Structures are given as C-alpha cells and as structure tokens.
Amino acid sequence: MDDRIELWNELAAQIAVDSIRATTAAGSGHPSSSMSCAHLLAVLFADHLRTDVQDPKNPANDRFVMSKGHAGPALYAGLKAIGAIGDEQLLSLRKMGSPVQGHPVPLPEMPWIDVATGSLGQGLAIGLGMALAMRIDNAPARAWVLLGDSEAAEGSVWEAMEAASFHGAANVTAILDLNRLGQRGPTMHQWNGDVFRVRAEAFGWTATQIDGHDVRQIDRAYRDAAESDRPTLVIARTEKGHGVSFISDAPGWHGKPIPADREQEAIEELGGPRDLRITPPRPPDFKPTQNRELSPTPAPSYESAVATRKAFGESLAWLAGHRPDLIVLDGEVGNSTYTEDVLAVAPERFIEMYIAEQCMIGVQVGMQALGKTVFAATFGAFMTRAFDQIRMGVVSRANLRLSGSHAGVSIGEDGPSQMAVEDLAMFRALHGSTVLYPADGASTVKLVAAMCELEGVSYLRTTREATAPLYGADDDFPVGGSKTLARGEDDAVTLIGAGVTLHQCLAAREALAADGVSARVIDCYTVKPIDAATLRSALDDTNVIVVVEDHRVEGGLGDAVLDALAGTGPLRGTVVKLGVAALPGSGTAEELRAWAGIDAASIAARAKEAIGRP
Amino acid sequence: MDDRIELWNELAAQIAVDSIRATTAAGSGHPSSSMSCAHLLAVLFADHLRTDVQDPKNPANDRFVMSKGHAGPALYAGLKAIGAIGDEQLLSLRKMGSPVQGHPVPLPEMPWIDVATGSLGQGLAIGLGMALAMRIDNAPARAWVLLGDSEAAEGSVWEAMEAASFHGAANVTAILDLNRLGQRGPTMHQWNGDVFRVRAEAFGWTATQIDGHDVRQIDRAYRDAAESDRPTLVIARTEKGHGVSFISDAPGWHGKPIPADREQEAIEELGGPRDLRITPPRPPDFKPTQNRELSPTPAPSYESAVATRKAFGESLAWLAGHRPDLIVLDGEVGNSTYTEDVLAVAPERFIEMYIAEQCMIGVQVGMQALGKTVFAATFGAFMTRAFDQIRMGVVSRANLRLSGSHAGVSIGEDGPSQMAVEDLAMFRALHGSTVLYPADGASTVKLVAAMCELEGVSYLRTTREATAPLYGADDDFPVGGSKTLARGEDDAVTLIGAGVTLHQCLAAREALAADGVSARVIDCYTVKPIDAATLRSALDDTNVIVVVEDHRVEGGLGDAVLDALAGTGPLRGTVVKLGVAALPGSGTAEELRAWAGIDAASIAARAKEAIGRP
Questions:
Q1: pTM for this structure?
Q2: What does the pLDDT look like over B568-607, one tens digit per residue?
Q3: Which residues of B touch A569 (CB under 8 A)?
Q4: B 19-78 near A (Cβ less than 8 A)
Q5: Is B587 left (phi over 0), alpha (psi -120 to 50) or beta?
Q6: Is 0.90 exceeded by the ipTM?
Q7: Interface of A with B in 406-445 (CB under 8 A)
Q8: What DSSP string runs through A490-517?
C-alpha cells in the first residue's frame, strides 16, 4: 500500500508539472485548474480506470470524461503517463494542427478521448449515456466523470444527476473537483462540500467527501464508488494551483499559464520533472451481449395521408427490429413523435429521458461514443433547448440522429411556444450537418433509414398534420438530392418547397396552370446538403424561383437556395423567399399558413407578381 | 373563515368549469392540467396575489407566472374571475386573432400576463428576475410561480432554485402542481412529494407539502411563504382532471378537451357553471426608490486598438452611471466580457448569475417585464445554451439586450468549444431581432448606447483581440446602417466585412490596390436589419461582392447579404461568401483565419478570382 501511495503522489506531481510545462510552452491555458485535480487523476489512472491503452475502444474498457474541459492539460499529462501520447505531443498543446487541443477533442490520432468538452456542465450526461450503453451491452464497465465546481451551477448537471439515479446507473462515478475558485472569483459554495453532499443525496446518489489531495482517501472513495448500488459523487476538496505556493488557492490565476521566468521555480516546488509510466488496470475479457432477440418487421408503407412524425416513429420501430445497435431517446413526447412505437419492438432500447432535452442529447453523445446508433426526438421547438449540447456534439465528431416534430406555424392552435420556426437555421449552421425535411410517409421511411448511415449531426424535421402521399415505396431519396415533381417545356417559374409547403406549392401550381402559367415544382427534401445543380438549372430555365418554407425567413430553406445559387456561378434572375416573417399566434393550420403568406393562394399570387403576370 | 373556504372552493370549481368550457369550445387544449391547479389559483387570486386589476403594471403589484403554460385555460379563467377579461373572450381561446392564445402570451390587450410560457421549465427563473427587480426598487411585492411536475425535470428549474436561494430571494414562492401525470404517462416521482421537499431544502428553500385541493392548507402555505426568510416551494399533491370522475387521475387525457357530448356531464359533476367575480387584495401604496445615487462618467473613447468586448464593458459602466434602470447580468465571465466594470459604478445593478445561462436569460426576461433595461453577457458560444429561453423571450415580446464575446475562430488557442461560429445564425433567425457586430471601440460605444432603446432581442457580437480604431467619437452608427470605408469610381469588387473581418477586408483592399484592383469596402456593423440599399448599389456598381465573416458560412452575414440582394430586385452579378466551412481546432488567431480562408490574403485571392484577374 505504501508503494502505491508513493506512486500516486509521484504521479500527481508529474501531472501537475506536465500541466505547467505544457501551458507555459503554449503561452496560454489553465494550469491551476489542472493542478487541483492532479491527485484525483493520478489515483484514477493508476488503479481504477480499467482500460486497454492499446485498444481504447474495447467495449470492456471503463470510460473517462473530463467534463471540466479546461483542465485538459491534466488529462493529456495522464495520457502521457499511461503511454498513450509522448512528451513531444504533450508540449504541442494548443499549437495549430496538434491533436492536443486547448480543450479535449476526440480525433483519429487521439482515440483515448471519446468526446469534446469545454462548454461546461455537459460531461455528466455524456458519462451517463456511456453507462447506459454499457448496461444495454451487459458490459462490466464504468463511466468516470470529472466535474468542476463552477459547472455545477449548470442545470444540465442536475438533469443528469436525476436521470442517473432514476435509471439506476450505479456504474457512473462523478468526481467533483471542489477547488473553490471560478473564473471571476469564488464559486457560490466555495469549499462547502456539505451543500453538494446533501444535494447529491437528495437526487438519489451516494455522496462522499474527501480531501482531494490525499491519495489514500481518493483510493478509498473510488473503491466504495465501484461497490455502491447507486451512482456516486466523490466531493473532493482541492486547491487550485495546488503545490505551487505563489498560485495555490490564489485569485487571478484562472486560465493563466505560469510565466516562463517562473516555470522552473514552480516545477521545483513540485519536486522537479518526472517520467513515470504506468499501466492502468486491465479490463476483464468481455463480449457485448443482447438481452432480447430481434423481432424484424416489414418496412412501413403508406397508401393514404399520414403525418411524417408518425411515419418517423413507425420507421424507427421497423429499424429497431432489424438493428440491435439502434437506441431511441424520448423527451417525454413519445406519443407525439411516435418514438414510443419502439417500445413494442425493443423496450430496453427505448429510453424515456423525460423533459430534459440537454440530458437527452448528452446521453446520446455518450452512447454513440460507444458505437450505438442513437436517435433522439422531441418537438423541433424544444431542440433549441439543447443547442449547446448539439453544437458540442459536432466538436465531438458525434453521430447524432435527431428529429424535431411539430414544425412551423402549421401546428396551429398551440401557438408560438410550440412552433419550430428557427430549427432549420440552427441545424443548417452546424458543421457537417445534414438537414432533411420529408413531405410524405414514403420519403420519411427512406430518409430515416438513411440517417442510420450518416456521419455527424443529422436532423429530420417532421410535420404534425397528416400529409397526402406523393411517392411510392420504390422511390429513392438520396441524401443531397431533390425531386422535381412537375416540369414542363415552358415553365415560367419554379416553386420550391419542402415538407408541408411542398403540398402548398403543388396546389399553387394547379392554380397557376388554371391561369395559363406553367410552374416547375421541386421537393427539397434535403435542405443540407442541398441539390445545387438542380436549383441552378431551375433558375437558368425559368429565371424566377419562389421558395416557400414554414420557418422563419432567415437561415432556412430560402437562404439555403440562395447560397446554392451563389455558389454555382454568377446570379441572374429573381428569387422570392416566402416564410414566416412575423410573430404567429394561435389559429388553425390553414389560417396561419394564409396569415404567413405560405399557403397555395399566396404562393400563386407571389409567383404571378414575380413573373409580371398580374 | 368558513366564508372564504366556500368562496375558494366555489372559485376553484368555476376555474375548472371555465377551463373545460374554453377547451371544449376550442376543440383542443389542456383541461385536465388546468383542473389540477384550480384550487391553487383560486386561493392565490382571491387572497394572496396583491394586484390592482386596473393597473396591471403598478410596481407594487405581485406578479404571477404560469410556468406550466399548457394550463393557460386556468389562468384565463382566473383572469375572468378578477374581471380582467370577459366570458366571451375566455371562449375565444385558441382562435385566430384572439389574445387568449393556446399558451399564455403577453399582448397589449392582455396586460395581466407579463411573459409567455409553454416551453417548460422557464417560469421560475423569470419569477426570480421579477423578484430581484422588485428588490432593487425596494418594492414590497412578491413573485408567484406555478410549476408543473413534469417540468421539474428541466435543469433550468434547478438553476433557478439555486440562484433564488443564493440571492436570498425570499419574495419568490413556487407552487408545484404535483399531479402525477405527464404527457406520455406517469412522471418520474409521481406523488412522491418528499423527493421535491428534500431537494428544495437541499437547494436552500423552505418547502412544504399540502393537499392541493384543500383550500385551507393552500391558504396556510401561502401565508407561511410570505413570512419565510427564504424562497418557498409549496408542493401541492393534486389530481389531473380533479373533480370529473371520468378524467380524474386517468391516463390518456393530457392535452385533450372533453368532447362536446360529455361537456355537460363534466360540468355538472363540478356543480355547474358559476359567475363569481372577486377583487384580489390591493397592493400597498408604493413608489420605487433607489439605494444609491447615480455616478455619471463621460463616455469611453478610444485612440488606439481595443477589444470590442472591453469597449462593451466600459460602455455599460458608462451607461450604468447615467441610467438607474440599467442592470447587467454576468454568466461568470465578467472579467472576459468586462461587464464587471459596472461593479465600480453600480454594484447593486451588477448581478453575478454564475455559469447558468438559462437562468441568466430567464432572470433577464423577468426583470425587463418590470421595466428594467437589462443586459446579459457571456461568450457568444455559450449563448447557445439559452436559445430556447431567448426564443421564448421573443414570444414574450421581451427586450433582451445580449452580448456574446469571443466570436469566431479568431479567439485562437482555446479551440472550438469556446468559439462562437453559429451565433449570428441563431440570433438572425429570431423574429424582430437586431444583430450588431462592431469592428472598433468607437462604434461599440454607440451601438451599446443604441441597444438601450431597441425593442425585442438585440445582440452585440464582440471580439476577443484588440482591433485598431476606424472611427471617431463623432461618428454615428444608426441601427440598420452601414459604413462605406473605401469607395472609388472604378471599383471592380466590393468587400463586405463586420467586426474582425472588416479589418481583413481593409488589408485585402491594400493588397488588391497594389495589384491595380480597386475595391470598395463596406462595414456591415448591423447584420440585421441589414443596409439592403447600400448592398444593392454595391452589386450594381461593382458586379462582384465578396462577403467575409468569422462565422459559419450558413445563416450569418453572407446569407444576410444574399437575402438583402434577393429582396431588392432581380439578381445580377457574383456573390462570393467566405466564412468558416470546416471544423476548427486550436491555433493562433492569424493561423486560424488563414486556415478558414477569411484573412486578407485569402480575401484578395478570392476577389481576384471572382473578377477574373489572376
């Protein structure tokens, strides 16, 4: 035991020293926040985090999430100690092109990091997602999450605390680095660990308070955590900048490297540099197993009108019967998004996350990091609640398959709080995202299936009301494509819609035809990446485009069309954007579409105006 | 007392009956969720909510927030009982054009409603903001918030719980309508009120458990709450659909009106319709007072380079010295956004909200509802955390003055988790929003001052690094305008930038001039509403526009320029959009701008390519 104590303390000193070396070399970063957790990481990496360093994606591995991402240097120092990275790489911290980024980011050359952190309060839900995925696979593994005390002010932490105990995730251990100081000054509760103990217990956790620089106490707490029948919070009282007298527990040292001319002094206080290498405990031999046979059913098909949200849920249930990796998360609206249809096919792979969208997305990020194909759904309006988690999911290179129902003013009477009218703008702005918006049942089925194979964030926007069938079960809907539903030799205008507005465009075409105007109609079922070539041809052919969306006029389909046209050469012609340009209230779907000027009559009128045919 | 008990019970029955009548007439809505809180509202409106119905904005009034917005019918029934609206208006629920919308919305004709609700978990922070504003004015008033039990899963509720106790807001009372059933089925904790009592106490609140249909217990709990030296949570065990046997505590009745053919039966079970009118308790006579004299200082001015985030904070400190209504909320980064400069001028009007952005925006919504001019600031990236709150702020017709610092890849080494690259898309998509992006100190000062007078959501994007002065203290920056910084007779191309990219455009202009190419340069300091006429002239004059932004290529300045051009007539010419089109990592600001292709060299090269001058 004394040997281990010495090792842990030496390793902690090495992590502190390496954190200083890396940040001083970088000229920026957070050494003091790294040093407060050096002992916590040392004991964890040396004796508790069961991981095969050569096989970081082994399903028997424990997983570690550095929720306080600004303490990345401590994590990198730990990765160096276990032989994952070398000293040269450590010292490339924050340099252009280095995988050792300012905050942890998972990259092909950095497979020991599963998810990106740095926007605070997100790591616990991610760890919970990992733990739940482990449980689905019957894996004997644990998720360990290091939390900062400042980030405990984020409600997302408490969503995850609640969900972890509700779901009985005893294989989650959270370690709270209670270092008393935030960015601006003292945290709300400083070293009052009792506050966190009482809260954690009230949220159904086991909680224990320790001195976060006493390795024996740390080891005991981790051992106890592994044996608890509940998730455990280890509340570790620490000092920011521990071990270096002139920054220890001192204000004004958040996010500041030790200046080069004081680096030596600081390192010497810590006993100088070390070069310890350790081997973390090996995970047990293990292969994932499933608790239930698959029960495949045929793909849904639709002869008559169906709401795309319903087709979405039925498609998920179909896919869940075929794919053991498919998991569905619900934001307590599964009877509206129809995700609860999955319950009949694979009950253990339908997880009710209740009304806690941030936690839902965090769990999704954690599960996909363990190789699961995870869908999450709620009303499109409420996806905004998790924008930061989704944005960070992009940095995590996460495959997030999302669906938002109740799009646009077409939901009708419930009013603007429930209407998604900014969701296309939100999802379109994300790097590498795919934005899909089907107009009928058949296209929904194909697009949901396609989402299972997509990388990055994909978003399927669905409609509350039933829409008429436009396509057959044999039609294909490649991502990035479009469908031209009507086309003539003398088309005077092109009408572009998606989802519910496509049906309005088709009706407008009828009205225009009655007035002797031939209109092309394009279904932009992929808003991103958009079918630029088809749009460019339409502009070249007809000289006038009217694009119609049940969404704000900014950032959505209309802007995507303009962007595609600008990106394919000089502009020549007229583009009329119709969308929601005022603040809606309650009303029927028809009344509200007319009010917004996105119904068939408005489209026909604006088209005639644009081509000068009054 | 017996008289009051009879009155309260009769009033509760009336609220239940009116909730049924309104939703059955509408053919949609949430009667069962309204009926569970009928007694809670009856006692509150009759004897506790001190309010002058004729003067709903009286600063001595208590305020009520219906956080579970789907129970709007109960609120409308209460407003009818106090004489604010008539029966005909009540029965216009959910009809097109009616102010009695599906979820509560504040409108000029509905001044008894202060804020919109309907996206769950947002009301408590709003109530806290009201309570804190009351305290700043030394008002003897209270905020009352009715919470649903499903929404208690939202972390935003626990952020507000923590902030309320931390800030000692004893004048907040939250009433938890513990009706056991959510939308899909039972809630996590059903009728286990102990869970909420223990959690509330752990979060520093007084908590009490009552039978939510026993008016005597309700009255006692409200009386105790008014005397507590802490915020109080009244945990009221209730039944969804209480009083009507066939829907009471029954699954499958969420969000469903009672069918017309059973309406009479339901109403008769409740004792038939009533037409009680009550007068709520009068608020005391009161005029707001301030605890501190103003200490006006001159406006900041800049002769040399300054970070616009610093100019922002210094402008706030200047304005706080002149305006007693100005309040600043910080997300624990006030030393980065420089909002903490306000501390020196008006310490009681700088409020540290810690790292809880959702609560920060909720508090802002509540404060502005009481007439305050409130700024909130954090890193632009972390504004995404509060997108749902900001979106709902639009529905609340709230005046939210926001600033996001650390915009774009130009923050450098900290990496993508800290980079705002989707913020312009988010804010631009909001109805009625104003999006500002100054490039130097002088323009920042003017724009921050202008924000004090704007309606709706306004957003100021600021830069981490210092930028050179471009303007003088006498220059004006009208919202919706732009500045043409360079213009010649033979301009071959127009370069459009804002913020940090404007400086790159100016440098690119120099490079182009050296190659004999004359470039116009426009500062789009207002991204929305954008100066469409100037942009149209530029396209007409130069035929080629290169628009450059340190933001994703979707949804930001580039799309705004295209939108403006499309909206001002037929398109003719070339628009090249430069922005962040891949996923950044760490690096220096210069390296990252070059990597993204938004630095001066890239701009000059793309401009030459676009005009065919290799």
A1: 0.98
A2: 999 999 999 999 999 999 999 999 999 999 999 999 999 9
A3: 574
A4: 26-29, 69
A5: left
A6: yes
A7: 412-418, 421-422, 425-426, 428-432
A8: T--EEEEE-THHHHHHHHHHHHHHHTT-
